[in-house]
Specification:
The chain contains 6 helices and 4 strands. It has helices at 11-16, 37-42, 60-64, 74-91, 109-116, 123-134; strands at 24-29, 51-53, 95-100, 120-121. Strand 3, helix 5 and strand 4 (120-121) form a beta-alpha-beta unit. The protein is globular, with a radius of gyration of 16 Å. The relative contact order is 0.18.
Length: 141
């Protein structure tokens, strides 16, 4: 069967098309183990797409996946996302843009972009793009 792939992951080929030669898209996910090569294949992303997860962090994974507590410390979760992003670009110097696979990550996209200086895409930016096609801005022309 075909695994369920998040809509965010569909952006990998689109974003890749915007990058110069020698640069590629990296993906941040909540857990590397749950994002399989089959997921990448189903959305047309390269099998060797660089991946990094938040499972080694202190907060984001522990609250959202392990449900160790009910309240999320937003500052600690932001640090988990930033550290995962730093790990991703340290391990893969050719990453030129990042796609946030997890739909809980968009609130941290601006902080990640600011910390890494790379474009960051997520489900929110994808919906904005899609909506812009449905309701184009009217210019006074």
């Amino acid at each position: 069967g075909v695994p369920v792939a998040t809509s965010s992951l569909m952006q990998v080929p689109w974003v890749q098309a915007t990058l110069p030669p020698g640069r590629r898209v990296g993906v941040l996910t909540i857990c590397r183990a749950t994002l399989t090569p089959r997921h990448l294949e189903c959305v047309g992303a390269p099998a060797d797409t660089p991946l990094e997860g938040t499972e080694d962090g202190r907060e984001f994974f522990r609250v959202l996946i392990k449900a160790e507590k009910r309240d999320l410390d937003v500052a600690a979760a932001r640090e988990d996302i930033l550290e995962a992003g730093r790990c991703l670009v340290r391990a893969h110097a050719d990453v030129g843009a990042i796609v946030l696979e997890c739909t809980n990550m968009p609130p941290y996209a601006a902080a990640l972009q600011g910390a890494l200086g790379l474009p960051v895409y997520d489900i929110y930016s994808m919906i904005q793009w899609f909506h812009a096609g449905l309701r184009p801005r009217a210019f006074d022309v």
